[in-house]
Amino acid sequence: MEREEGESTTIGVSPAKSPAPIYSLTFLEVITASSVVLGFLVGLVCVYLTMPQSDYSFLKLPRNLEDLQILRDNLEIYTSDYTVQVLVGYCLVYIFMQTFMIPGTVFMSLLAGALFGVYKGMVLVVSTATAGASSCYFLSKLIGRPLILSIWPDKLVFFQDQVAKRKDRLLNYMLFLRLTPTLPNTFINVASPIVDVPYHIFFLATFIGLIPAAFVTVRAGIALGELQSLGDLYDFTSMATLFLIGVLSVTPTLINKKKT
Predict the structure, then answer these.
(1) Higher pLDDT among residues 166 and 256, named by residue
(2) pTM to 2 decimal places
């Protein structure tokens, strides 16, 4: 029975929690997201049409190292003669995955090292990862608020509070986040426009902050056959180095806070 108006609540019984609000996209927002997906698909179809007729059943997003090795072995055949098509296809897939938060970009980074070597692979991974993160940033600015409020409401409150505290040294803080596992990169991409992180700060922190981890992953891709698991990518030395760089990046913020 429902409690009558004016009747006191029984001690020791907590009131039922109100259901979490349900957020939905408007029709215009759905059209925007669908248009972006369609644009990527059209680009991939164009790449496919310029390739020679062959069996491309191996073309799928790798979900483990075995899938990645099969993809590498097959793409190596086309990389020398169809370099532009392979590059464009790679960039489109990587940016698409970053834009729509599809897991597995670590395999794409390994693939870049296996196909193009350390230095070319580094340029490719850092540029496509930054482009994909930027695409996610702007798409989230248009339609991301309902999504992030539904998935990460607590993280969003925390992130918004931290950004507000560090307005003067925001680049250092964003670099720290990119270099350490404090917050997931996917969350940072989606949440940054919602909490008013300026794009130029987001871009610089992303571009610079992704370089160390990209180097580790791309270099590992050269010896892809020797990897037993993704855990082999980040040994103690690599993790300690990344953490140290992250601490150094945020040090000016801590010093400035003590002075004030």
Answers:
(1) 166
(2) 0.79
